[in-house]
Amino acid sequence: MERQHFALLLSGGGARAAYQVGVLKALTHLLPRNHGLPFPIICGNSAGAINATALACYASCYHLGVRKLEWVWRNFHTAQVYGANRRDVFGYLLRNYLQSWQQTGTNKYPTSLLNNAPLRKLLRNTLDFQRIDRNILRGQLRAICVTASSYSSHDSVSFFQGQSDIAPWQREQRRGVACQLDTEHLMASSAIPLVFPTVKLDDEFFGDGSVHQLSPLSPPIHLGARKILIIGVEQPEKPQRFSQLSRFPRSAEIAGHLLDTLFADTLHADLERAERVNQTLAIMNDKQRQQTQLKPIQALVLNPSVNFTALANRHYHHLPSGIRSLLRLIGVKQASDSSLLSYLLFEQAFCRDLIKLGWQDGMDRQQEIKQFLEL
């Protein structure tokens, strides 16, 4: 495969992942209509894993894959992801409460704040996983990787499906496992802790891939990547939070802070490590480089130019009544400073705004992306 060292990495972020679709759409302007995937290695975690898998299903035609993905996100409703009316939300919480009175060994269902069973149905109806194998056999895709966090072993586990020369890996608190990807891998990767239910895979319990992910660049590198395009969802500015010393932070504000940390901070640390490795390799001679077995890694990071929290607040009224009532109980209102809303607002009006923003940001950096991907 000619471009086997190019990779795409999509981070998590719940509803924020609609932004990634806009950036991916901007890339279609750089490619002919019948062009295949410009990055044969695709990795993702959380909601980014779902976007990554959708692209892998249409690796033979990048334009078609992006159009399919955009159609889903542009027509999203929260009820397609989790139960959101009053009956669904509070009925689910009541079931969890009643289950808590049972003996520990008799719990048959995972507990969580929201029930994301509708997402499982949506994924089964929209993704054809058999296409992934065909694209790999035809050389149109080198590998697709979905990362989830094992609550059982505390490892970051990267489930990958790829060409036969790719070997599994084992490092400190992270491992790569060859498998046939299916819906349950995506459910595990996108199971935000406490918000969505834990998923059981191969005798281990899994949650969101951003948990325990100490090295987000590790999966694409192990799959052979040397140039990694990263589409994140980190906010452009980080104003000082909890500055009103006259009151304590609300639970919703702390929850938003924890999610922001979960989905962004480890990537910065890993990019910094990669840059230090690149600088070290640059001052070594050829013999020393061969002894280290390290190779330089180039990364281009694309993040939104507009703050999602303020944008989500403008769409607060689009939330279904059940989830709006639940959020109000924990302090999330229309003018709240919590970023939690932007993770849970799977409504088409908000998603369309994020797609538009992603497209504009991608177009603004089009020449930079074109040069990086050598198109």
UniProtKB/TrEMBL annotation:
SUPFAM superfamilies: FabD/lysophospholipase-like. The keyword Protein transport does not apply. The active site is at 46 (nucleophile), 208 (proton acceptor). A motif (GXSXG) lies at residues 44-48. Residues 8-221 form the PNPLA domain. CDD domains: Pat_hypo_Ecoli_Z1214_like (cd07209). Keywords: Hydrolase, Lipid degradation, Lipid metabolism. This is Patatin-like phospholipase family protein. It comes from Fluctibacter halophilus.
